[in-house]
Design a protein that fits this description.
The chain is an alpha+beta fold and 382 residues long. It has 10 helices and 8 strands. The protein is globular. Bound molecules: flavin-adenine dinucleotide.
């Protein structure tokens, strides 16, 4: 067993850390308060190739492995979890779906534009009545005169109002079950594709989340991604990888909370001599426990990422990683606010932003309860 990152993994980690410190961190708090999509951050992401992380160079990507991808998301999550969600949903969900399910022509048409950041990607599965149980979607696609005609509504689509390319799920037969779900690729401006309400969320203020309305949206036959009825299986595969990436962001946020906590305690120590008493203070306990649990979460994430890179099954490990890191970041940010006291309740404190964002990370790409369900199903079938 080797706990060392490769020189290439270390190099990308340091490069992204530097980009985050110089370009993302100074704007993160302000973007959150303004509640606007972080377009200027997208320019930096493009410049550093962070919108095409896992895709081969011939498609305009960086060809990086899953371990590097997770390390990158940890670095971005540490300073700005809204921007991290843009990177994750664009790479892991929209672009990966086209890359995994698309034919060569579709990959050549869409992946280079997505990887270079000419357009942002969105992945529209969830509907008002179907989230955890995604097979319950109601959107329907029917064939008419050599086209697909799609009707339905999507909710909570990340990049919903700012994307140029959408992957959209719909049933393509009357069975209306998981085996009748297909995926389509659609471009912004397609007649019948209308952006609805842009959600005002408790957190992730600089990430765009919108409803989509599909009214007789007409797509050419060749916009079907993969085989009809195959998209649910593809989506589950995509979510496995997505969940490991989400763990990276949660770990980054917990690390951000820890670093803020260390700074705070050091300053208070100068004034009040805390940490000098022979007994363990609650601040010391918080810092020690959090540092230990962050390392545990990172090991779970790296195990899942390594299995993915080795082409081995990692669905259970991905869920364990998301469950643990999601619960950790919620606990870490809650306790960090306790540590800061009244300062923690002000909008000046960075950790209150992480605290609000954490809750959304616990829900997105499968809530903690759904991760528990997946893990227990694996255990009971082994
Ligand atoms: C920040 C964010 C970004 C998102 N981005 C996207 C996106 O880009 N594309 C997209 O398609 N979707 C997106 N989503 C939607 C997300 O995938 C769903 O919110 C998630 O799957 C949960 O579905 P739901 O909100 O409908 O909750 P529900 O499924 O209604 O669940 C409500 C509660 O019931 C619990 N529950 C449900 N079923 C069970 C069960 N069987 N056993 C035990 N408990 C259960 C859940 O854990 C949850 O606590 C995003 C969500 C968030 C928060």
């Amino acid at each position: 067993m080797n706990f060392e990152l490769t020189p290439q993994q270390k190099q990308i980690q340091l490069k992204v850390r530097d980009f985050c410190t110089r370009e993302l961190a100074p704007r993160a708090q302000q973007n959150d308060l303004k509640e606007t999509f972080a377009w200027e951050a997208v320019e930096g992401l493009k410049k550093h190739g962070l919108l095409g992380i896992p895709f081969p160079k011939e498609y305009g990507g960086q060809n990086l492995d899953m371990v590097s991808y997770c390390l990158i998301l940890e670095e971005i999550g540490r300073v700005d979890s809204s921007v991290a969600l843009t990177v994750e949903s664009h790479n892991s969900l929209c672009s990966s779906h086209i890359f995994i399910a698309g034919n060569e022509e579709q990959k050549k048409k869409y992946i280079p534009r997505l990887a270079k950041g000419e357009v942002l990607g969105a992945w529209a599965l969830t509907e008002p009545g179907a989230g955890s149980d995604a097979s319950g979607i109601k959107t329907r696609a029917v064939q008419e005169n050599g086209h697909w005609v799609i009707n339905g509504s999507k909710t909570f689509t990340t990049q919903g109002s700012v994307a140029g390319v959408y992957v959209i799920f719909a049933h393509t037969s009357d069975a209306m079950n998981s085996q009748s779900i297909s995926a389509f690729v659609a471009e912004k401006g397609t007649p019948g594709l209308q952006v609805g309400k842009v959600e005002k969320k408790m957190g992730l203020h600089a990430s765009d989340t919108a409803q989509l309305h599909l009214t007789n949206m007409k797509l050419p036959k060749e916009n079907l991604l993969g085989k009809p009825g195959r998209a649910f299986v593809d989506a589950m595969k995509i979510l496995d990888a997505g969940r490991v990436g989400i763990s990276g962001i949660s770990i980054g946020m917990a690390r951000g909370a820890l670093e803020e906590g260390v700074k705070w305690v050091k300053e208070r120590k100068k004034k009040f001599k805390i940490g000098d008493s022979p007994g363990l203070t609650s601040a010391q306990k918080f810092l020690a426990d959090l540092a230990t649990e962050i390392d545990a979460a990172r090991f779970l994430m790296l195990r899942a990422a390594v299995l993915c890179d080795q082409g081995k099954p990692y669905s259970k490990e991905a869920s364990m990683s998301k469950l643990f890191s999601g619960e950790l970041v919620m606990k870490a940010t809650t306790q960090a606010i306790d540590l800061f006291g009244e300062y923690g309740a002000t909008l000046d404190c960075a950790v209150q932003r992480y605290f609000r964002d954490s809750k959304l990370y616990q829900i997105g790409e499968g809530s903690s309860q759904i991760q528990e369900l997946i893990i227990s199903r694996h255990l009971l079938s082994e």
